[in-house]
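Figure 3 (text version): structure tokens given as input.
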């Protein structure tokens, strides 16, 4: 057929999870926790359903949840969005990204993405008729080259997408990056889409540089987040977008005809959870830092070389001491022959770098799962 998305097949996460099942492999591929959702959240969800919170919510989201997001944003980033006009609850960050792109990108517009980047960005841009302009991050540190970004800007540039903490690398923007970004965007009418789904998973005392901390950025930004990452429930698909009133109004025009609203009982549950247990998101970094440290220590007993992980729940490993296969072939081999699923990096690129020998492992797992994986990885 005359496909609208010629470059797109089935996502690498689906392919590798399927392969994991077929081969009984330990799945450190697709990013999802294998431990429980906080008990209070499950109780609150069940209660919401029993209490009849089962019909359409307001299009913009349950008011109590938007209030809770406004308060949490102020606590975390020192600025309070208006719950009425600036916060929209969505069916995951994926929907928020799709809606934001479709709200502002017209046919022929260019959107700058920093490679490697999460796989849903480019298809959203293409479906809007836009063109993704790929600017590579540093191949080892995954830091942006802001001069290269500046050179990529044209009169057609409508939007720039950033992601911190970053999937797949775990790299984080620091304050100097934000200053460079502010300089770069000043005087332009380029929108910023800031993907901050791992906002609470940051390590070693680092500060998450949310675009919401900076007036110069938030005036032009769609900031998206996801409760899936923060509350260990990637399958619930609830997220949100914070944007200035005029941008939120455009965003909502897409949202209301895309999904209209999001799973109502979960919205009540998150509203309760955010308010009653702020320590959950406050301690999430420490929770994952323990996992990261233990996993990295174990990896040092294998031939895989772990790269630094400032944030997020993915560990990149350099496998060049094990194999000279390209990353897709290596991850397939690791799954089918060695029983551990990893995700190759090449699907995160417009043009994958030649000779890169990196794979992504998800450490949002119970110790038993990680131990089982390490036992197999020691055999490499
Ligand atoms: N952005 C990034 C960087 C992600 O890693 C993910 C989840 N894998 C998403 C967006 C999508 O989040 P959600 O599952 O809430 O749609
Ligand atoms: N965000 C998840 C990851 O990076 C995958 C989500 C999905 O499978 N769509 O692993």
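Below: residues designed for each position.
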């Amino acid at each position: 057929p005359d496909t609208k998305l010629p470059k797109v097949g089935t996502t690498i996460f689906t392919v590798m999870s399927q392969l994991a099942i077929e081969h009984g492999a330990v799945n450190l591929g697709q990013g999802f926790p294998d431990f429980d959702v906080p008990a209070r959240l499950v109780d609150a969800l069940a209660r919401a359903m029993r209490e009849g919170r089962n019909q359409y919510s307001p299009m913009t989201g349950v008011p109590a949840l938007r209030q809770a997001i406004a308060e949490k944003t102020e606590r975390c980033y020192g600025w309070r969005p208006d719950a009425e006009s600036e916060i929209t609850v969505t069916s995951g960050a994926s929907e928020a990204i799709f809606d934001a792109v479709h709200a502002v990108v017209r046919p022929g517009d260019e959107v700058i993405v920093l490679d490697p980047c999460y796989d849903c960005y480019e298809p959203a841009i293409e479906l809007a008729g836009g063109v993704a302009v790929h600017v590579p991050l540093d191949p080892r540190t995954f830091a942006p080259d802001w001069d290269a970004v500046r050179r990529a800007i044209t009169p057609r540039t409508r939007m720039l997408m950033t992601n911190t903490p970053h999937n797949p690398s775990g790299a984080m923007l620091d304050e100097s990056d934000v200053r460079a970004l502010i300089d770069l965007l000043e005087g332009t009418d380029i929108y910023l889409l800031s993907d901050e789904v791992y906002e609470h998973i940051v390590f070693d005392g680092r500060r998450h540089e949310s675009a919401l901390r900076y007036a110069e950025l938030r005036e032009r930004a769609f900031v998206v987040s996801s409760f899936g990452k923060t509350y260990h429930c990637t399958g619930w698909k609830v997220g949100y977008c914070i944007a200035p009133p005029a941008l939120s109004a455009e965003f909502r025009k897409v949202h209301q005809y895309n999904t209209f609203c999001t799973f109502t009982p979960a919205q009540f549950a998150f509203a309760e959870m955010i308010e009653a247990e702020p320590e959950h998101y406050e301690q999430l970094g420490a929770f994952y830092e323990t996992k990261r440290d233990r996993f990295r220590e174990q990896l040092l007993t294998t031939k895989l070389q772990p790269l630094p992980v400032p944030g997020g729940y993915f560990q990149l490993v350099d496998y060049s001491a094990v194999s000279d296969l390209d990353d897709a072939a290596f991850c397939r081999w690791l799954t089918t022959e060695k029983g551990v699923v990893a995700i190759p990096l090449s699907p995160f690129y417009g043009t994958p770098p030649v000779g890169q020998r990196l794979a992504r492992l998800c450490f949002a797992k119970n110790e038993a799962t990680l131990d089982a994986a390490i036992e197999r990885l020691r055999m490499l």
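The mean pLDDT is 97.
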